[in-house]
Amino acid sequence: MRRVAFRYGLTFQQAAMTLLVVLVLGIMVGAGRIFVDWRAMHVETRSNIGKVLALVEGSAAEAAYQLHPELARRLVDGLLVFDPVVHVELRTDFGRILALRAREPDAGSIAPGWGWLFEDASHYRLRLEYGVPGGEREDVGQLRLDLSPEMLARRFLHRVARDAVFELVRSLFISALVVAIFYFMITRPLLRLGRAIAEVDPDAPGDWLPPRLKGHGRDELGLLSEHLRRLLQSSQRGLDQRDLAQRELTLLNQELERRVEARTLELERALGDLERQKTEVERAFSELDLTHRHLALANQQLLESHRYARRIQTSMLPDSAVLGDAVHEIQVHWEPLHQVGGDWYWFARRGERCLLLLADCTGHGVPGAFITLVVAAALEHLLHHRGLAAPGLILQALDLEVRRRLRQQNPGAESDDGLDAAALCWEAGERQLRFASVGSIPLLAMVPGEPIEVIRGARGHLGYRSLAAPNVIAERSIQVGPGTTLYLMTDGVPDQMGGTPRRLLGRRKVAAWLEAHCELGLADQVAGLSRMLADYRRDEARRDDMTLIALRPI
To answer: How far apart are CA 500 and CA 510, in angstroms?
Structure first.
């Protein structure tokens, strides 16, 4: 039987752990006691010096008042009788030193490097007052007394060393006592039980008899011995059942071999059928691959058409440079759901007159892009042939022109398409802008230091056959100043599905984000908002075309 080395045994581990616990507790308690003793010695030193100074205060005041050097020297010499005292000085209120004594402490009575422990309790100053007959008490001088902090520290460290030796001896005694108790109560019975377990016969574990553990019949060791006996008996029953099951398994294997032979014949016939089916499947896959190639070619042609359509639609969008010095800063984020989309915007300037228009047309993708072409042509006609300049009039005329071009002015027309739009007009260099909107495109105005303002337009839609336009499109006059930022966005920006739980983002949260990042430049704002929307969606797909226009007129 393999023996356990002493340093790995339970006895050694118990001794080491007990000694460690006792030492740690002793160190913690000792540290607390050292701190308490240190504080007590501070209090005791201050109290004793205070009493001594109180005893000599009268004599010192008398010597200072009478300017009596001899009396002062006797007083100072008397104070030097105390070992810790290294400096005594008696000085008049005029600064004259009546008596001064100082000495270096004996090198054997100090603790170099530990004086900081009692530095705050080593220096004393006593203001001396003398009562003149028939008058008030007046200052006559000062008595200075300094102690050696190293000498006080040595006394304190001597006491600490004595207590530490006592604690170490006590810790060793307690550890030895605890280890001895644990050895006779637990370790030795466990060793006997372990030797008995090593003698178990693997082929007949049920014949094992547990050792008698005197005094442990009713405790955990006795219970462990009984559980081992029952476990080995259960193991014996399991071995017997295993032998029986092995005999039954042999008979079952013989029966299975007969069934496998019969099943093999059936499988060989089935494999022949599968081979014929495989040939038919390979022919079907070949036809499917050909179909996939045709679909891939058609898809590639469709994507090429979409990319070409995007180039056409992008070329119809204006350059923000056309506004010139009419705006201080402008930034546009145009992102169709597919290659092309139904969002469209336009910038125009004639002389000092400026226009900004944003439209959200029916649908997205190619159908929406075709509607934007109609809207672009209609707006070009209104601006260049009719010379309209008011945002409300432009939107009313745009409604009629789109209906006419799509032949939707008649109730029986087949198409029913239209748009929501917002227009902003101003004179370059002025601080007043005019705004009008129909549908779901509000204007967000943010003035530095104020909450963001949402300016909504008229309810209704433009151009539809079945949906009437508003009777009156009201215009809103907006006064802007330095730093004022204006935002126009289609509903594809706030209609982002995401978050936990899943819900629409909403225009209110978009406005709150813009308000929280108002100090950024417009390019950084637009880029940051795009990242925020992507983070909000996570794996969720976008639902609509998305356009945001941000400008600072001044």
So the answer is: 17
pTM above 0.85, yes or no: no
Q: Is the dihedral of CA 296, 302, 305, 310 positive or negative?
A: negative
Rounded to a whole number of angstroms, the distance between the first and last alpha carbons of the chain is 95
Three-state DSSP class for residue 417: coil
Does residue 547 contact residue 356 with C-beta atoms inside 8 Å?
no
Taking residues 524-541, report their average pLDDT.
95
- Other C-beta atoms lying within 10 Å of the C-beta of residue 158: 11
Among 222-236, 241-255, 419-433, the minimum mean pLDDT is found in: 222-236
Taking residue 164's Cβ as centre, other Cβ atoms within 10 Å add up to 14
* Mean pLDDT (the chain, rounded): 87
Q: Are 453 and 480 in contact (CB under 8 A)?
A: no
Residues 167, 173, 176, CA angle at the centre, nearest 5°?
A: 140
Domains and CATH numbers, the chain: 6-177 (3.30.450), 319-552 (3.60.40.10)
pLDDT tens column, 25-75: 878 887 888 888 889 888 888 998 898 888 888 888 888 888 888 988 998
Burial class (CB in 10 A: 0-12, 13-18, 19+), 510: buried
> What residue type is assigned to position 450 of the chain?
E
CA gap 514, 451 in Å, rounded:
11
Cross-strand bridge partners of residue 360: 343, 420
